[in-house]
User: What shape does this take?
Amino acid sequence: MTLTKRVIPCIDVDLDDDGNPAVYTGVNFENLEYTGDPVEMAKLYNEAGADEFVFLDITASADGRETMLDTVSRVADEVFIPLTVGGGIRTRKDIKETLRAGADKVSINTAALSRPELITEGAAAFGNQCMVVSVDARRRYDDAGEYYAEIDGESCWFECTVKGGREGTGVDCVSWAEKAQSRGAGELFVNSIDADGTKDGYDIPLTRAVCENVSTPVIASSGCGGPADMEEAFREAGADAALAASIFHFGEYTIEETKAYLAEREIPMRL
Assistant: This one.
C-alpha cells in the first residue's frame, strides 16, 4: 500500500512588542514581518484540509524562555489534525507539558544536539511517534564535513545550526540525522537556512542527502514557492511530507489547490 504524502502548513510564532504571541514570516530566519494571530490561522488551516499543522516558537530557544503553552493549548482546541510544537523544549518535563497542552508531537533541535539522550528519553516515555528532531542546516563549502553533495560543480556539506540558525555547530547534518534516528526520533524535520523564505524551492540536495541515509520519515522545509516545488521534493528528494508557510499565509495557493495539483501528477495524497 502506497503511503500518502503530506502537505503541512507551518506558523512561526514570536512575541510582539506588547508581549502577545503573533505569527511572523521572514527570509533566511531574519527580517520578520507580522502575519497574523496564531489561533485564528490554526483554525483556518484545519478547515482548509491540511494534513498536519506545525507551531514553532521561533525565539524560545534563543531567548532561553519557555514555550508559549497557553497559546499552544488554544491552538490545539482549534485543530483536529496532528499538531507538532517546537521551540524552547529542553527537558523530558517540557515534552510532557507540551503534549499535555495538546500537541501530538514535539520538535526539538538545540536541546537534542546538546544532549542527544533527550531523544531517547522522550521516545521511551511518550513513544517514537511523538519525537520529531528538527535539523536547521546550512551549506558549507569546506573540508570539515562527512557527507558531501555536488552542487553546481562544487562539493558541499550541510552543517547543523542552533538557536534559529544563528549559531553553527560543526556537526554534519546527515550524520546527525542518522544518530537522531538511532536514538528514537520518529520523524525528521529538515530545514534549510539558505532557502528559508526565498520561495526558490526546497534545498533538494540537502533533503535528498538525509532521505537517502535514514528510513525515518522526512519533512522537507524552507523555500517552497508553490506546488511544483513540493512535487520536486517528493519525486527528486524522496521526502514524505512538505511544509510551507508564506505561500499559504498570503493566499498565493490554498491547501486544496496544492493537493489537487499534486494528485493530478500522481503524487498520492489524502483529498
